[in-house]
Amino acid sequence: xxxxxxxxxxxxxxxxxxxxxxxxxxxxxxxxxxxxxxxxxxxxxxxxxxxxxxxxxxxxxxxxxxxxxxxxxxxxxxxxxxxxxxxxxxxxxxxxxxxxxxxxxxxxx
Length: 109
Fold this sequence. Notes:
Layout: H1 2-12, H2 17-24, H3 28-35, H4 44-54, H5 58-62, H6 65-87, H7 92-108
Helix pairs in contact: 1-3, 2-4
């Protein structure tokens, strides 16, 4: 899974194996074995180096694809809800009051 993610990101950036290995300071043969799934548990240091070149944090390599997708979906849903609230004329103060009321209600249960 990690290897496929690295390979996808590398190709998206149009880097060859050689180019990514040189930029990250890792062995090309090791990078290749990670991408092909021969090696499956790269070190955090390796992921930090490769991630720095590819522009992603180590955590993103470790998250399952499903979780990442659902987190993005949830963020989009929240964005849509906020937009809808704004269109309906709810002020920030009214929204904060609603949140405080809900917190108070939950604490009383």
